[in-house]
Fold these 2 entries.
Entry 1:
Amino acid sequence: MATMKQLTAPLLLTLAVTTLHAQGDAQPTNTLPNPYRTIANYFQLPQGREWGSTSAVEIDRDGRSIWVAERCGTNSCAGSNLPSILKFDASGKLVKSFGAGLLMFPHGIFVDRDGNVWVTDGQDDAPRPQGTAANTLSGPPPGATRGNQVFKFSPDGKLLMTLGTRGGAAAPGYFYQPNDVLVAPNGTIFVSEGHGGANSRILKFSKDGKLQKTWGTKGSGEGQLDGPNALAMDSRGRLFVGDRSNNRIVIFDQGGRQLDVWRQFSRPSGIYIDKRDVIYVADSESESVSRNHDGWKRGIRIGSARDGSVTAFIPDPVEKTTGTSAAEGVAADVDGNIYGAEVGPKAVKKYVRAQTTTATPPTRSTGGSAIPRTADGRPDMQGIWQARSRAAYGLEDHPAHFGMPAGRSVVDTTTIPYQPWAAMKQRENFEQRAKADPLAECFLPGVPRIMYMEHPFQIFQMRDAVAMTFEWQQVFRLIYTNGTGPSTPLPFWMGDSRGRWDGDTFVVDVTNHNDRTWFDMAGNFHSDALRVVERYAMLDADTIRYQATIEDPKVFTRPWTISVPLARQKEMGRVLEYQCRAEMEEAKGDFKPEPRTWYQKGSAPVPPLPAEPRPAAAAATQSGIARTSDGKPDLSGFTEADAGGANWGFEPHNEPFTPGGRGVLVDPKTGGLPYQPWARAEKQDRTTPGRGYDDPTAHCFAGGVPRSLYVPSPFYIIQTPTYVVILLERMSWRIVPLDGRAHLPDTIRLWQGDSLGRWDGDTLVVETTNLNGKTWLNEVGDVISHAATVVERFTPVSANVIQYEATVNDPVVFTRPWTIAMPLKRNPKGELLEVACLEDNQDLLHLKDVKERSIQ
Amino acid sequence: MTRIVVAIGVICAWASIASAHHSFTAEFDINKPVKLTGTITMVRWSNPHGWIYIDVKGDDGKVTNWGFETAAANALYRRGTRPEDFPVGTQVTIDGYLARNGTPTATSGKLMFADGRAITIGAGAVAGEQK
């Protein structure tokens, strides 16, 4: 014992486990360390193809490429013409595929020392009425024409050899339900068969396919097998058989003599042994399919094929389920990366050692379609995108309803794995969707729904942040990529998004969801325990594969994944606005037109007022300001206006019950705003209580230009060589192209107008036209109309101060142009939150009461 | 309607009782300051303003549920206030001004706990407001 105490703990553990397996009745090996990190969705299928069930995964002769046999998007290739045998390079890119129309149910795969690919086809196509006791058969039922065979392909996919009869044959004509195949170094072929049928045996063939020997009958005794699911061979030539339904590995010599029985690797669906005799065993059924193996956790156990020790365990992230879950097939490449092929979740996952921080170094795409890249080598996703999918109507397969076209499932599990109560709740949501859908009130759609809503959005990439600006309700997403996590515990409609690059894939972790958003119009929903992991992969210059893995243990039985293609939108030139709530209130008569300021189609253009000499602008100090790599002043980041109370008046003011103001009007210097008489009277009228209702911001509509910058809410500036984008915390945005384009046609009018920018030395000059004339300039009712042109100047004067000026030239409202000025203060530590103004706008009801009383 | 205690008197000038999103003078009446004591029944941590509801017993013994509008959730958060600072059931005193529409609604200034602690919960002191 004294000697034992000097041993290190891991070695003790190893010894303990080794001792246990020798005792026959092993204790569950559930608590071993998991030094692996999971990479879901590592492998890229062609556009439009979705993962089906997989249990067959293998490493190519080169040690790094990965072969997968996949069941054609579902759990069977019957009736499909998709190639089921797929080869991926080490970066996860599909490089070869074949086998279309040949296999029904690819189950096991093996690459021999010559690089040939062997695949078993584990089912047949015999008609099998429900309830038929197929499990009693030792051969296929009558009528089978395909399946139950083993195929050998050349590395290029040429069929070299077929073992077995089409559709299968009872013993001795083999096979029925062949599970796995293995070719020994000397060319001897082993096949294990029996997957619920009355047979369970190992078949041994010579190199040229002649049956030499079989052993094993169905049962649990010595020399018996029950569903031998997997085959592997160690460096000593011992044949490892995954005797799944007996919850054990049985080790034979190549003549069929039993050498050992191991139970410490749990219930084996898949076994892989690498060149160094590291053994990987996949358990996909304990405590779920199999109730006779409770207490053992599903997952991948890693250990030694030499001494039987178990040293690591990658648990199934799904705790409780009833079906097959986690990997059924397993393989490991020469670098020790593990690949798990999953039947239930329909996925192939990669597991890398966690200390390898960059398991997938950025890989340039080799051959195939090139994707654009940013200066720092990342895929360049910038531009306008639009989902090409019916997912927004319903994520699952659904027929058409009024206002809801039919669509196919975009979910990897085909149907969403709801808990029973939640499935009932979803049906209720569906029935009530006309009123219960949060979008019926124009609330923020949440993530992932906003991504596939068929409204265009634009992506902007900076080093520390990626921004997405959506047409719908001018929602935006600001995704920090600076290594930080959520800074508040608060729930938000759009969640909290933090992104990182995993090779060429942009991965976003979205947390802090509220429980009010839906996934689609069909009422699919979640709780506030939702976590969404998004993956954006550019397949070519014009396609992004968007995937969102949904985890919500309060609502679902296990994680599931949405997959939707995003297509580059080349027609629009810019993202326009769909201000859902404003359009709804205008349509209902809750927000009434004001003909004196609103744009009306067909009205003649109003010539601008003669320009006034511009007051001397603040000059940029040439030193101390941040600059971008192209030498321009860097305006980007979290910013707040030092607004001088501009939202309550541009002139100095100090009335009770209103924030005071120092006055921001710099031109004219005296006399206040140079109103035309009608507009001065209108401004006065707007200050009466009955008009408070008419301020668009009281309705939560967009603030317009320039007001959005000096309302008391911060904003975040995104800056790229060709765009400046202002993300406003009140959930609206302004996009300023710097590419010299022309303004929009006169008839397109927007709440935030059409802004174009250019650099004048160190000053960003932004000209905004195409305003809709629906906004107010502030809470005290200063007037602006559709005819206004607003010229803003952003001049950095020190590291964190930008001097801001806005000159308004509005010939409908004023007698001359005027200018306000204020500093904008950057705060590198600030983070934008979310103001979902519509969520609880009780003020509007009060203001409506006041308005109606004043009218009476 | 329940008679309420309306404290007309020295209301210190709240330098910045202001809304981020709508006119205060339109919605609330500066001539009707109010100071009420009651028990918190609900806290809505929301936008564009939060709300704290308290049950207030009138002189006639009748209980009325009053809603006090607070600053926006983000503004409260950036000031260091947290949703859990206001447990339901706590007795508090809130001062503010009555809504013009005659409902038991008011905008808020300060919230005071029975032990004397006070938190400014009203709109104001948010970015951009200056005296």
Entry 2:
Amino acid sequence: MIALSGVTHSLEVIEILGGKASQIPIAVTPFKDDDKNNDVQLMHEVIANDLSRSGLFSPIDISGVSQYPYDERDVNFSNWSALQSQFILLGKLRKTAVGRNNLQVEVIWSLVDIYKEKTIMTISLKGPAKQYRLIAHRIADIVYEKLTGSEGIFQTNIAFVKKFNPKQYSLFISDYDGYNPKAILNSKHPIISPRWSPDGKKIAYVSFEKKKPVIYIQNIETGKRTLLANFRGNNSAPAWSPDSRKLAIVLTYSLNSQIYVIKADGSDIKQIMRTRSINTEPTWAPNGKELYFSSDRGGSAQIYKVDMATNEVERVTYEGKNNLSPSLSPDGKLLLFLNQEDRKYRVAVQNLLSNQVLKLTSGPDDESPIFSPNGHMVLFTYKDYGKTSKIGTVSINGLKVTPIDVGSGIIMESTWGPIKN
Amino acid sequence: MRLSWLENNDNLQANLFTLVIHLALFIFMIFSVNWNVKAPYYAEIELWDAVPTQTKPKPQIKKTKPKIKKTAPSEDLKKAQQKKDADIQLKKKKAAELKKKKAAELKKKKAAELKKKKAAELKKKKEINRLQKQLLEEEKLEKIQKQLLEEEKLEKIQKDILAQEKLERLQEDLRDKDLAKDTRIAIEGQEDLVAGSNSGELEKYKALIQQKIYQNVNKQLCGLDPVELTFEITLMPTGDLIGDAKMIKSSKIESCDLAVERAILQAQPLPLPKDNRLFSQLKKLKLKFQPNGNVD
Amino acid sequence: MKKSLLLASILALLAAGCSTTEINEPMGLNAPFPELENMTADGSEVDLEGNVSGDSLSQTALDELAASGELADRSIYFDYDRYAIKEEFEGLIGNHAAFINKHSAGVVIYGNADYRGSHEYNLALGQKRAVAVKQALEALGVDMSAIETVSFGEEHANQECTGSTCGQDRRADIGYVGE
């Protein structure tokens, strides 16, 4: 650089292009608890597991630390910096009894920035001690939102089907990490394709209880259900519209599987397309104007999209041999699907702008990929070593694959519920 | 290969190695001395056990000749006595032979053991010698290495001094001649020639700084669309920031701004040249980020 | 309806009893059966058999069916990811076509797929196989409205099959209304 003025150099400019997908190291220390109640001591573990599962955080190993800080003033910045931690989450609890058998807990916690040596936030949360997991999930959500700018999903629910034996199936709802599961339907016949309404109140699913596939909508709170579709032939693949008012479904009323749209109360059915090929697995784009679906019209199973106003169809996937089970990210920019190559089915994600494809799992029998409500994680099923179907999550950057433990048995057809308001 | 191995390792490694070998040798020494002492006792005991007739040491009894009437012994008695004597002689002979045999065996055993011991000692000695030799070799090599490095350093310093002198002389001449813009260009051109491309050094450090910060940029927190950020930083010669990183241009995404700021802070200390002149050019920096690729 | 509900409840209770003895299970079948409604939202009941125009099998027809060795063969097998009818099954289809036409029977064809791929896509694939058989029967003179097609997809498949053993699941089965 030639300095013309001769007095001061102009600033040297360094351009840094691109970046890495890395995990933020964070220390999550046990919360101070004078009353040695076992449940509540696990709170910091729940938080650490949540953050770790997301693939954006890496909780550091604190087993070698002799004294944990319980207050922001107790933090020794050089010590934590030496452990390569960028943040520390600490806190303390206090238990109070409100009436008989009603234990309440108050948690006062802080998130501290180690590099800048200052506290980012200090928050107090109160709730029933029995719901300590939910409180921990809430803390994880707040931290997640502050440091990533996106909403957290640690307080959401998932649903899945458990096959106890060929004559026993149950549809379960649980915390997103598999805890506190509750059966909402028990049946002697298969249950598939459960789908949560975006408003979080109902679940649609396909049941074989009538000796052929039909679609029910069940109110989660009351358990009351209505038969949405029992037309001649198969009724399957329910997909809620973003405003929860309509569903796209697949009927074989006219021979092969075709896509229709029906109102949530069962009225006003409209056929979207009619071809000689398979058209199935519809899913809505977040703008409510397009449907993505799988079809074999090109010779192999691929994913297409249809503009519901113009009926124009466009092919979307070109990778590998077959592509199935589309799912859109909440911002509509990423397409999640099952990619088949070399007889292996794995979960893949495609950037709809650049058309770049990233394979997130290795297969060989992965299925049912669906985005978390913030688009940062994927819930999917896979087969373990014994060829038993299980469920797990993978972070969208591909860095973290974590199983979800919901006990023994065949676990399949999983789906993710929305963020509750 | 040996050379490069030494070059790459610290002196500390060599010293440690030396210490370990000396320790090992010391232990060997002690061990062999102890062993020497133990063996004889064991051998001795065994000997006594094997030959029962000899366990009791022959009592030194003074045989007093009894005053007995000498009566002519009968033939049988004589024969018996002869036989007895012969038997005794035989026995004595046998015992003596056995003793001899045992002694010989023991001698042989001892000899063999001694031989073995000697062989082992010799082997050890050889090993010690070898190690000592090796050590010496390595020490020698180290010395040579050091020398070479020193020489290199000296050479470089001399070169720098020469270059500097040359430069100063040039500057003096030019200063006398009052040529404004052109002189500055001439100086910098010469700097390139003489000091081995000075601007090359600058670029090198810029690249090092860029690499170190890049490693920490967590682009996941910057969404999917192209964004741009700019920070200004002021550095100490140690490579640490003076004050905060000042954000000149925001990405409009809070988590992205924070992540990039963290990337800068995490990269401390930044790699900076020792040379004052170069450092002054890098003291204040403008950092431009495009975490999701080009904004074009 | 009530009887089956009662039976179902007893079974559920029994099942609940069985599952709670298993120590590893974190939960048991403890949810009550929700209210069952066998009607579509607009109030009409849709029934499988009613859709088929053919007759329920008469006793003579049933006897004939039971006696026949050929007609005992009900399954048509398919290649991986395929729904084309292979030559070796044309005879089987011919036999059934004859029987159907003779007795004006109502037919249900059940389509199946092996476990590989998604449940929904396999439902569609099973359907295509059932349709292929339906069309083959049609070509032999059977009235389209007499044939109902239903797909089970991979729901009856062997989830642990490997290689050639998966071929068992890629099939369409012929069933008769009334048997």
